[in-house]
Design a protein that fits this description.
Elements lengths: L1 H6 L16 E5 L4 E3 L2 H4 L8 E7 L8 E6 L2 E4 L8 E3 L5 E3 L8 E9 L5 E10 L8 E2 L2 E6 L2 E5 L8 E9 L4 E7 L5 E5 L3 E4 L7 E8 L8 E7 L10 E7 L9 H16 L1
Parallel strand pairs: 1-9, 12-19
Antiparallel strand pairs: 2-7, 3-4, 3-8, 4-5, 6-7, 8-9, 10-13, 11-12, 13-17, 14-15, 14-18, 16-17, 18-19
The protein binds 2-acetamido-2-deoxy-beta-D-glucopyranose (NAG) (2 copies).
Protein name: Ig-like domain-containing protein
InterPro entries: Ig-like_dom, Ig-like_dom_sf, Ig-like_fold, Ig_sub, Ig_V-set
Organism: Patiria miniata
Length: 270
Amino acid sequence: MSSVQKVVAVVGIRISANNIEDEISFLERGNPGILSCPLVGSGQIPLDQIEVMYWYFPRMSDENILISYFKGNVAPQNGIPAGVYDINRNFSLVIENVTDSYEGTYYCRVKPKLRMLFDGHVTMGVKVSPTEPFPDVTQCTQRISESACEAELPNDIEKPSLTCTVRDAKPAVALRWLLEYSDGDTQLISDRFTVKPSEFSVNTFTTSASIPIVASNVDTLYRCQAYGEVLGARNGSHVTVTVTKAHYIHGTPREHGSLLLSSNITGLFG
Ligand SMILES: *[C@@H]1O[C@H](CO)[C@@H](O)[C@H](O)[C@H]1NC(C)=O
Ligand SMILES: *[C@@H]1O[C@H](CO)[C@@H](O)[C@H](O)[C@H]1NC(C)=O
């Protein structure tokens, strides 16, 4: 098992804004989004103490004030039309329709009653969730459920493979392939994947991962798993592939199947 994992070490490409030190708040493109001012969101400044608030983008200067709150009144600034931004009851900034041009760092300035000014900032990244169902396996002819499908491989293909894809996500998702045994055990077979700009969806990414099918028996299933912060609660979503026409090796015991698999992967990637 460890030899397999050693051979298929991580070679995944990752495109995301993660190299920025700050934690990024991801908001969904085309939807309203809410950004919380750190000192206010953490409760350090009680809401009922706030007299004045300003939100700035992309810099903290008077010309970059987006919207202000002054003793109960919210007003857009610098000629920005009403309805683009708002300040809600929690003193969070509301962006009414998130698009890529909103990506960056937002600054907030708060003046509580009888206290000095407090400044904070929050970095926003635009995310685009992939449409379901995902991940998708190209060779699957039939989707049995949300997380299972059937692939029928033609007999005449010399090196059969499975290709898993998640389309049109931002930031790109990561993929891995595992073997799934009937006792529920899984074994990592590859965490290599490639990321390409999507063809039809602007500024999103398509991730794909292919594995050769080198051992097939009735007990062995292939699982493709997707992960990434863009998936939120659906992080780890997977699809389990049943390969029919398992004519390559019949009735191979599990140990033999794994051995064969690792030696083949060594030949392929090593
Ligand atoms: C949000 O903005 C995009 C790009 O300008 C536009 O296509 C879309 O219709 C807008 N959505 C809403 C709900 O206003
Ligand atoms: C304000 O914050 C509270 C707690 O974080 C949350 O439950 C509530 O939905 C928020 N209200 C608005 C208008 O954002």
